[in-house]
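Thread: ABC transporter ATP-binding protein, structure

OP (GT): Posting the sequence first so everyone is looking at the same thing. Length is 251 residues per the record. Can we get the C-alpha cells written out before standup tomorrow? I want them in the notebook alongside the other entries.
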Amino acid sequence: MLQVENLNKSYKNGFNIYPVLTDVSLKVNQGEFVAVMGPSGSGKTTLLNCISCFIPYDSGTIRLGGRVISDLSEKGLSKVRNEKLGFIFQDFMLLDGLTVKENVCLPQIIAKKPIVEMEEKASMLCSLFGISQIMEKYPAEISGGEKQRTAVARSLMNDPYVILADEPTGNLDSKSCKAVIDAFLQAKNQAGATIFMVTHDSYAASFCDRVIVLKDGCIHQELTRASTRRAFMDELLNTLRILGGDIDDNE
Ligand SMILES: Nc1ncnc2c1ncn2[C@@H]1O[C@H](COP(=O)(O)OP(=O)(O)OP(=O)(O)O)[C@@H](O)[C@H]1O
C-alpha cells in the first residue's frame, strides 16, 4: 500500500547540507496500523512530509498503491494528496465555519464528487464513528472526542490508500488519547484502513501492529507486536530508553 525505497533527504542552509534521512526503506501493508517513533530530531516528521508529498526529497522512491509519486505533476500530486491520502493532525484542523457533516464531506467537495454519493458516504462514516447525532453542529459546539472522531471520519471519506497521522495524541489527556486510538482501530477493523502514525507516545504506539524506530535519520529497528499490548508497550519503552541513552545497549 505504501512503499518507501532508499529515501534520502537533506536540508540546505547556505553552503551547508544537513542529511536528515539516509537510505530509509519501509513498507506498510493494506490494513496495517504502523507507528514511527524515535528521539527528537531523528527525522520522523520529515519522513511523513516526504510521504505526504509536502516536501521534495533528494533520492529514493515512494510508492502509494503501487504508483511512484515523484513521477506525478504538481496537479497530480494535489490529487493524490486529496484523494489517496487521509490526514490526521495534532489539532485535528476542522474548519470552524463548516458543520460536522460538511467537514467530513470536504475531501469529496474538493474532488467535486456527486452530492448524493457524498452525503451517503458521510452518513455511513458518521454512523460508524457514533457522531450521526451531531452532524449539523459546528466544531465549537462539540466535544474534543467528537472532534477527533469527525477528523477520522473525514480522513476516510475518499477511501485513501493510507491515513497519515502526525502526533494525533499529542497534547491529549489519556481518555482522549484512547478515544483517538479506538477510532483508528475501528477504521482499521471495520473500514480496512491503513494507518501510518508518527508519535512520541508509547501507549498509543502499543496498539499498533508494528513500530518503526528511527535514529539519526536511519531505521534503527522494527518491532512487531507479538503478544499482549502491555508487553509491547514495555518493549517500546525499553527500546526508546536505550536510544535515549539512559542505559547501555549491551546491558
Ligand atoms: N525546514 C527545515 N530546514 C532545515 N532543517 C530542518 C527543517 N525541518 C527539520 N529540520 C531538521 O531536520 C532534523 C529532523 O527534523 P524532524 O522534524 O523531521 O524530526 P522529528 O523526529 O520529527 O523531531 P521531533 O520529534 O522533535 O518532532 C532536525 O535536526 C531538524 O532541525
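GT: Both are above now. Quick notes for whoever picks this up: The chain is about 35% helix and 25% strand. Residues 174-191 form the longest helix (18 residues).
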